Amino acid sequence: MKTVLTYIPVALLWLLHWLPLPVLRAIGWGLGRLLYVLGRERRNVVLINLRLCFPDKSEAEIARLARDHVVAFSRAVIDRTPCWWASAARLRRLIRISGLEHLKNGDGRPVIMLCPHFVGLDAGATRLSLEVLACSVYSNQKNPVINRLLYRGRMRFNPGAVVMSRQDGMRRIVKALKDGYPFFYLPDQDFGPKESIFAPFFGVQAATIPALSRLVRLTGARVVPIIVFQNADGYVVEVQPAWETFPGANVEADTEAMNRFIESQVLRMPEQYFWLHKRFKTRPPGEQRFYK
After folding, report:
1. Where on the phi/psi map is residue 72: left (φ > 0), alpha (ψ -120 to 50), or beta?
2. What is the pLDDT of residue 9?
3. Which tens digits make up the pLDDT trace of 55-93?
4. Is 74 in contact with 25 (CB distance < 8 Å)?
5. Which parts of the chain fold into alpha helices (H)?
6. How far is Cα 261 from Cα 256, in angstroms, rounded to an integer?
7. What local confidence, expressed as pLDDT, does residue 267 receive?
8. Intervals of the chain under pLDDT 50
9. Whether 197 contacts 171, CB under 8 Å
10. Which of 192, 127, 118, 197 lies closest to 156, judged by CA?
């Protein structure tokens, strides 16, 4: 019964994709303001993250930044509806790309697309799927209706893309890279202590998966950062030049360098980073927990 009932909100979301962007953004603004008021637990996560990362900001500045973030996140959620159902022509108008040549330089090396968690990440991934046949990691959802929706949304322009489970491990990713598929890599979430190392993020020790360094060392891949900006007209996907001095001395130094890079991008648009995630959930031995 629960699965059947899921079709009702999905149908409502389908209707939304016909609306022009300014109307979608107004709906997202209202949803964001409502979630900020009602979503106490996640609001507190955002506030804790911002206080940790920006200790010099006042409480008023932190609260304003938190509200702006929840609105930006909610707008991105509503903006998924055209990503799932709108035409390719409309998506090209809404989501623009700069620097695409950095993914197509033809040197024959594998490519890792380093994509930190900004609110426009899904819009950027959809737009890139119109240009690049890539591989990515997918987390199965418990609800089969939502699972199909997310999976089809990811694959609809690119049925030949390689989508793998996080449980498949690094071996399959290495094979896909060597087979010529650029890897869409999301580097900055806390997956627990098992495969992570601690590296500073805005001066706070954060459990970080060191897979980027290891994949580059195994495959000789180029790291091409991709940053997605949400703006009034839609989104801009900024494909940056490949890193020239990576990897460095060791895996630990590489992971710290990656976090420093993400910090530099967060400072460009701090309200758009994914502060709703419990980035500092895993703590080094003996350190107190930040979240209840």
Report:
1. alpha
2. 85
3. 999 999 999 999 999 999 999 999 999 999 999 999 999
4. no
5. 2-16, 21-38, 40-53, 59-85, 88-94, 121-128, 144-155, 170-178, 211-219, 251-266
6. 9
7. 98
8. none
9. no
10. 127
